[in-house]
Amino acid sequence: MAPENHGKNYAISLVRCLAMISIITCHALQYYNNPLATWANVGVQIFLFMSGYLYGQRDIVEIVPFYKRTFLKILSSYWIAVFVFGLIHTFWLNTIDKYAFVKLFVVGCWLPGGELFGL
To answer: Do 21 and 43 touch, CB atoms closer than 8 A?
Structure first.
């Protein structure tokens, strides 16, 4: 009995996987100042192109809930990453003071005029 793939195109998944490997390779080569890093950087363009293609294939019935879900999905990952890296830099590496760590999460300090609130 063959497994159901629910419309998943494994060729596209393979290309995206190879693009991710290319991106990781690019970062490793950049770390060692290898000039081949510019060639491995093509993975970014491939990954973005394939992701855009897949988004273009979706049937979006209601636009507002779609963008709300997408925005919340991206924003939640962003805040988790900021929190984890902020903790690492504040309490382990001691490169950020504790006051600056708190300011990472206060939106007013990023906005023009945010200094008016004493942040």
So the answer is: yes
